[in-house]
Amino acid sequence: MTVTVHPTQPVTAMPLSDTAIRKAKPADKPQKLRDGGGLYLLLRPDSARWWRWDYRRPITGKRNTLSLGTYPDVGLADARERHAEVRKLLAAGVDPGEHRKASKAAGEERAANSFEVVAREWLDKRDWVDGYKVKVTAWLDNDVFPWIGARPVSELIAPEFLKVARRIEERGAIESAYRILQNCGQVMRYAIATGRAERNPVADLKGALSPAPERHHAAITDTAAIGGLLRACDGYTGSFVTRCALRLAPLVFVRPGELRHAEWSEIDLDRAEWTIPAHKMKMREPHLVPLSDQALTILRELHALTGRRRYVFPGGRSPKRPMSNNAVTAALRRMGYAKDEMSWHGFRAMARTVLDETLGFRPDFIEHQLAHAVRDPNGRAYNRATHLAERRKMMQAWAAYLDQLRENTEKVVSLKRKAG
């Protein structure tokens, strides 16, 4: 039998039963339905029912109350089980309340140092070119976080990362498995640098995956075939903006993202220069592209149409956005060039091969114009103006050579250069 009393007064002398709990009705003041050993169910006027345990702290002997959950989420049997566990701690001289606080703090620390938390922090600090961060984030969201995202970085071991990579490998995406594993390794190195892990277990997985297939961007390097490609670009019947991109791509051989994000503010037609800012470049260094007479002709023609807008090659759906990443690729397919025959990126490989093997320009001139990491004999990185005069000559000679291939002339003027 229970009566309404002050919370500090006992209510029942006998152990509780499920029936007694269900029949108990709230009153104007809180009621204690006691079960024994300091365990009781606090029945509040708002009908809330809380399991509580009163005990005295070790050493100080001060009274304390510990919550063990709410009824009916925690039933009578579960409450007694929790009660028994905390009484064991008390018997061993451990304050159950302080133990709970420490456990909660440890859990919060584990959560704060989980792989997902650390990875997202690492992602926020990346300064990648447009679109790449989105791709890496999607990889982590879909293929990594569901499996190991909640695990503390300090506890992760190599087999866990290997399982993540194996799942990707099993669906045939071997290259993606390598890329994601590489990203995981970078996250772990960041965790070490920020004091949340002591070692990088991903480093132990070298050679554990199937060999990644060599990836080459499809490119046409045969001179006769290049001529046909240039004529096809000139005769493209789709969008005028896309046709201009097709015609300009072989003349400047920049990366696709750099071309489609070109802005008129970056181009100086009078100086015949295109300066690409560092944040748009893969190597995060500003890049200068000397413009040949042929390139200037295309740009001046296009300027009449898009010169008042931000982008040189605005998108078809919205002029406030750059051309689609698929625009030139789709145009190449429309012209009959298969995926394994020619790619947008292939214009770079075309220039690199022919400038070196056929026209004989110095490799460092070519590599610098491709915006690759080029260093001098002393290990210093070249700046954007290094060998600019020579690169201007190279770009003009390249444009002239492409004109000859386009015209399909049988006698091509030799532009062979001496090294030096």
Automatic annotation (TrEMBL):
CDD domains: INT_P4_C
Superkingdom to which the source organism belongs: Bacteria
InterPro entries found in the cross-reference section: DNA_brk_join_enz, Integrase-like_cat_sf, Integrase_catalytic, Integrase_DNA-bd_sf, Integrase_DNA_bind_dom, Integrase_recombinase_N, Phage_int_M, Phage_Integrase
UniProt keyword annotations, A-Z: DNA integration, DNA recombination, DNA-binding
Pfam families recorded: Arm-DNA-bind_3, Phage_int_M, Phage_integrase
Domain Tyr recombinase intervals: 215-395
Homology family: Belongs to the 'phage' integrase family.
Protein's name according to its UniProt entry: Tyrosine-type recombinase/integrase
Species of origin: Lysobacter cavernae
